[in-house]
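Comment thread on ticket #2218

A.B. wrote:
> Attaching the input chain for the structure job we discussed in standup.
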Amino acid sequence: MMMQSALVGEFYVEHNFWLHKWLSKKVGSTFDAADLTQDTFMRLLSKVETEQIVEPRAYLTKIAHGLMVNFLRRRDMEAAYIAAMINFGESQEKLFPCTESYLINLEKLVTIDQMLDGLPSKVRKAFLMHKLDGLTYPEIAEEMGMSVISIKKYIAKALVHCATER
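C.D. wrote:
> Ran it. Output below, let me know if you need it in another format.
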């Protein structure tokens, strides 16, 4: 039986170039693809039963795809955050007073996005209207063309979902 790290090393030698090329096409950047490729192999190192992998490329693709989806979601979130702040009239200096605060805010947005992921769109919309726009349940019900009882259920469902996603 081959040692875990030796098998991962073998996979790396055999599939690194191919995986990097595949990711480069998907994300449009060789630098980001290189990071994702390394993250994929690091994730593979943490797997327990590597020697049981029959189709390495399929397995690597599955891991890389998950990492890529998270990466693209975060990149889109960052672009939306910057665009929103610019639309609110924030200057570049105000937007990025220091890299640390920017990254902390971005991480908070990513965490919120992950917490809301998986909620039905109407539930997410009602929750965001209440929390971000400050609308009352009757205002949300009117806006969405629903009953106040439904809105209460939606927001309760969102709160429970967010509490369990932490």
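A.B. wrote:
> Thanks. Noting for the ticket: The helical segments are 4-27, 30-45, 56-87, 92-95, 99-116, 121-131, 137-144, 148-165.
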